[in-house]
Design goal:
Elements (H helix, E strand, L loop, with lengths): L5 E8 L9 E8 L6 E4 L8 H7 L3 H6 L5 H12 L8 E4 L2 H15 L9 E3 H11 L11 H8 L1 H4 L8 H18 L6
Parallel strand pairs: 1-4, 4-5
Antiparallel strand pairs: 1-2, 2-3
Helix pairs in contact: 6-8
Amino acid sequence: MHHTDFIALDTETGGLNSAECALLSIAAVPSWTAPPFLVHILPVGRIDARAAEVNGYTPELWEQCGAMTPKNAMFEFMRWLAPHRHARFDMAAHNAGFDLLFMSAIQQRTGVDLELPGIWHCTKTLMQEERETGGHGYWPKGCRLDDLGLVSGFWKKEPRTAAHDALQDARCCAHGLQWLRDLEPEQSA
């Protein structure tokens, strides 16, 4: 890892295709002491039934959560990021490629460039590397976020909600990445 500080990000989506499916929520958790970010987004695009089941999406729930237009959600995220611009940090996500695709798609659709750092760390990839090298015990084959939450002890600290929740998943990713870093051998200077 290049930097000590990171922002763990998670998205909840209406499906797997970033070109067609709605981005429903974004959450971000910094590794330093600062409040997290969460925004629910009014859907623009398809919402597959399985995705709605996974993240608990219903129009009524999103209305209760104060969902906003994609452009306003991006402005809110930009406002949250503003005080952190002076810091040097990387981005992290459990399935970084997936989240990055949806973040790129919403930036392109809204015309709002968040200027996120170019370095993204993927906890799923780190878990797969640990699994392949046989390091630090047993890793389930799927290397899912739920697996990271179990192995790192996060779900004991914060029990899993029934539906995937972007903020809880971002907190799990942040905890898991910190836990994975602590497992790495110390580098000699």
